[in-house]
Amino acid sequence: MKSFVKVFAIALLYSVSVKAQLNLPPASTDATFKQQIGFGEMEVKYSRPSARGRVIFGGLVPFGEMWRTGAHDATTIRFSEAVKLNGNDIPAGTYSFFTIPNQNEWTIVINKATEMHGSSDYTQDQDLVRFVAKPEKSARYYETFTIEVNDLSKEEAGLFLLWENTQLKLTIKMNVDEKVMAEINDRINVKKEDRASLFYQSSAYYFNNNKDLKQAYAWVQVANSKSQDAGYLQLKAKIEAAMDDYASALKTLEASTDLATTKKLDQVIAANEKLRAEWATKTGKK
Fold it and tell me: What distance in Å separates the CA atoms of residue 227 and residue 19, rounded to the nearest whole number?
């Protein structure tokens, strides 16, 4: 009976103690974000500690030691498609994201184990890749540790780690060009699709990405034979100019402007006028 009373009293005391504790927000908040890059998507999950007057790198985060790249559980990064991270091949999947900061150089560690609290269960034999990157001074002070994606293009993005006065940028590259080229080949050469817009888009992709100009020209001619479009004619003129045939380019551009005037396409007309003024100097015409 005495044992029961003792156990009951301890349980009651614990219950009162728990209830007496204040419900406070965590010192480091959790964050998750997704970002589309090219045809793929990346997702980052991490916790965000704040400086609160402390020295961060070389202090709170010691130089030369493995860092979870955040707080609480190890930071994870997921790619829906294979990417190159600073030139390193990363297959589609989810990985833990560790760093080893130093004053002039950081080691980036992408590890295949994803269920870790901090780096307590980290083992190097699970590393997918390690590489080095150089930190820089950030443009402003970051009180709270931040991971963000910026500098986006059609197939690349910058992954930034930002805290205190330090930033580290990594480059993510998706394999967009190979996929677009494969689709063009499949739809034009294999499936034999016969739409003007497909030939125009394929021509524009070749032209805008410095590929085979002769092929781009052949496709834009097909597009123009199938549809009367001021934009199609404008692209044909641009390709002719790129092939140094400015006389033909000016003639094609005039046809594009005439059609755009009929259809009241003011933006096309304005763009054509800028091109005409530029190309006229190449032939001596004004």
Answer: 76
SS (H, E, C) 17-76: HHHHCCCCCCCCEEEEEEEEECCEEEEEEEEECECCCCCCECCCECCCCCECCCCCECCE
Instruction: Give the pLDDT mean for 213-237.
Output: 97
Contact 147, 45 (CB under 8 A): no
List CB contacts of 211: < 8 A, sequence separation 6 or more: 205
In this prediction the pTM is: 0.77
Contacts of 160 (CB under 8 A, 6+ apart): 146, 147, 148, 149, 150, 167, 168, 169, 170
Token pair 């498609």 in the structure block, residue: 81
- Exposed/middle/buried for residue 1 (C-beta within 10 Å: 0-12, 13-18, 19+): exposed
pLDDT of 91 higher than 80: yes
Measured CA to CA, the distance from residue 113 to residue 123 in angstroms comes to 9
- Site of tokens 């004004």: 286
Mean pLDDT of the 205-233 span: 97
Share of the chain above pLDDT 90, in %: 83
On average, the pLDDT of the chain sits at: 92
Q: Does the pLDDT at position 185 exceed 80?
A: yes
